[in-house]
Amino acid sequence: MAQTFTKSMARNIFYGGTVFFVLLFLALTFDTSRALPTRDQRAQLDPSTELGQRIAHGKALWEHNNCIGCHTLLGEGAYFAPELGNVYVRFGNNKEAIKAFIKYRPAEGIAGRRSMPQFNFSDDELEAIAEFLKYSSEIDAAGWPPNIQG
Amino acid sequence: MMKYKSQGVAKLYFTGAIALFVAQILFGLILGLQYVIGDFLFPEIPFNVARMVHTNTLIVWLLMGFMGATYYLVPEEAERELYAPWLAVAMFWIFLIAAGLTVAGYLLVPYAGLAKMTGNELLPTMGREFLEQPTITKIGIVVVALVFLFNVGMTILKGRKTVVSLILLIGLTGLAVLFLFAFYNPTNLVLDKFYWWWVVHLWVEGVWELIMASILAFVLIKTTGVDREVVEKWLYVIIAMALITGIIGTGHHYYWIGTPEYWQWWGSIFSALEPIPFFMMTVFAFNMVNRRRRNHPNKAAVLWALGTAVLAFLGAGVWGFLHTLSPVNFYTHGTQITAAHGHLAFFGAYVLINITMISYAWPLMHGREANSMRAQVWEMWSFWLMSVSMVFITLFLTGAGILQVYLQRFTDVPQQFMVVQEKLALFYWLRELAGLIFFIGLVVYVVSFFVAARDAKRPELSAEVTPASA
Question: What is the span of the domain harbouring residue A7?
Answer without folding.
Answer: 1-38
